[in-house]
Amino acid sequence: MKKLLAKTTRAIALILMLLTFSGLHAQNTFTLTIQNIHQTSDRVLEFDFYLLDTDIPSKTFELASLQFGFMVNSSIYAGGTLGVSDVDTSSGLVVAQRCTANPNDNTIIGSQTEVKLIFPLLTAGQGTIISKVSPGTLLTHFILTSSVPFPVNSNPGIAFNPSVVTNPYYGTKLAQFVAGISTPLDVNIGTTNAFVQGTQPNLNTTPIAVSNGDWNTPSTWVTNLVPTITDDVLIPSGVTVTINSAAANCKTLNVAGALTSTAGINTLTVNGDVTVTGNLSTGANTFVLNGSTTGAGTIDATSGTLVYGGTAAQTISNIATNTLNNLVIANNAGVTLPTTLTVSSLLTINAGAKLTNPTGATLTIKNVNINSDNTNGTGTFVDNGTTVNTVGGTTNVQQYLTTGRNWYISSPVASAPTSIVTGAGSLWNYTEANSGTLLWNVISGSGNFGVTRGYVANMTANGNINFTGGTLNTGALTILSSTLTRTGTVSTGFNLVGNPYPSYLNWASAVATTNTGTTNMEPTMWYRTKNPSATYVFDTFIATGSGSGIGTTNFSGGTTAVTGYIPPMQAFWTRVASGQTSGTLAFDNTMRAHQDQSISTNRLKVASVSTVAQQLLRLQVSNGINSDEAIVYFNPNASNGFDRFDAEKMSNDNAKIPEIYTFAGNEKVVINGLNNVSYIEELPLGFTTGENNTFTIKATEISDFDLDTKIILKDNQLGTENELKIGNNYSFISEKVSTSTRFTIVFKSNSVTTGIGNTAATASESIFIYKNQDGQITINRKDAIGEGNVTVCNAIGQVLTNVTTTGTVTVVEKKFIPGVYLVKVTLAGKNITKKVIIN
Length: 839
What we know:
The chain has about 850 residues and is mostly beta strands. It contains four helices and 67 strands. The N terminus is likely disordered.
């Protein structure tokens, strides 16, 4: 019985031991992969081995031991010998575990060659902790080298051997430390846990240079074919290819050796990316690069021309000695310069292309051409860094103008002569302080364009005018009070100025309250242009704060609103504020930008961008041929009188163009900024026409009003009311008239502003408490009779600040951390309290 018990005990112990080892054997999962298989020459193939821990996060995989046995297709080195090596410098294994012995490739089995590789053994605690982050831990980088070129279109056929194999196969084996014990793991080939990631590439299917020679000689390439625009080209280390007999083309280019070009008129065009770890030299020729440029090598274009012409944004890099001879920017998506660059001969920005000199960068240039045409618009240059002009250089900036219309222009070049227009047309500028016919001054004879001044040009033929004679305007530029006046008796306060830069100018930034260089100016600017029916009209844009604003849609026929991005070489109207006799405008490089010149209305005109969400009504009147627009919007910082949130109406002075407008005080305005929709009962809508006709009024935009708000157009002459909705037109007949009484806009809403514990209903109806667009607590009063007190408490009632009201709008300047606050306003013995959330 004792013997039986002892045997039973030993059997149970053995079973438990087996179960324990079985558990240790199976407790971890992994994937062993070969990745990044790529050819680096006509006879060299390289790839990486990775090990990934795929077990649960709480379990750690410590590598105990490792050996590879994998097969390679012997036909890839037919007629030669195969050398194998590994590079461990970038391995993720601890140094003591990296492979130090040379791989063994002496075993040929059938049509395959077996490669063997073994790694050192370590004790527990010394092994590598394998990564759980894909692709895992890099074990080694492997290189197969044939003594002869790989056969064209051959496949390497790389595959792991499993862990259990029979002689002469060499198994792939893997073990991990589990509780300090080296525990073997099963390696299963295929897609289970040991496989090649992705599809193995066929070899020598694309042009790889096999010897020094001419690009256009077939024997230079392993395929015995000259590369085409669809080919990925590789020039290996130690090989030099020369372009010397004709133009060259390829899809992508990898230069590990050298690519050069002899004197002539040859061109290399690379449609995709360029990788340079060796040297690429243009010689005296032209290289067109349409993709990205990477690598530790250099591009030498000190005696040729480099063209950046991609369709996605590019950054110039890899330039030897940071110097180029000729640089051509032909990329409409934009090119960014490196930190330091010298263009010793000519910088050209093609029509519609964009170039940016980034912050902190220095560009040194001699001659500059910025081109323009009727299809692509004008090239633009944004200078956020430093541009240095070499003495003796020439600057040319083109602007394409058509005949038969007046163009409002300005010069992007210092000291550009006015003869570029007067020699082929007529030119005028405008003086606000003059009166009558003296407002417009005919420019004739010699002289230069004034920087930041606006002009009107009328050309006798279609074509480019060329602003030349100085350097590109850049940096801080100010229009002084001696130029911007409000002393004239005709169109009082209106001044014609111009964008001085070869880029777009952000008007909202120029008139922002943070720009102390701009003073006494209204935040509105106007374009004088032709609408689709070839009639001169005014388009208006008003900056409303935070870099945004609202614009009319006259130019684009009522579908797209103008923005505050003023095109290069565009003149526009500004106005000195009421009550002032002069003003100043200050521009600088922070206000410059690029816009999409593929949109035709972006050339000496502008298209729409999104603005800060606010309640907005856009109305349009039309006689079927010409149209006009009026805008009403609500901003809690605006008053209901005339202020900087309103844009005055500039009449088109054309009987065939009907006009609509509203009123801010006694001023006719095209854009009317009002305080709150609850304050507006009826808003007069002015209407003017110089002819008898049938007209329509419609709403082209109704934005951000409460769902229960109805907007009514009242025809007081006919006694009708019509709800304005998108898609609804109101038609009417009118004789020649200018009236402010026929039409009224009515806003009807059931929404009521409420507070917490109001002592009087009238208090909540006349006081609005909210967070403004800058995140500040703001109190807006319907009237400003008497002053009161504002108390701000946190959610548990602690008083954080007390301030006195200041007129119609009071802004609490104190900064609050995110949270819920109670704001109490005491005014004329009445209280209103409201929650405000700061986030």
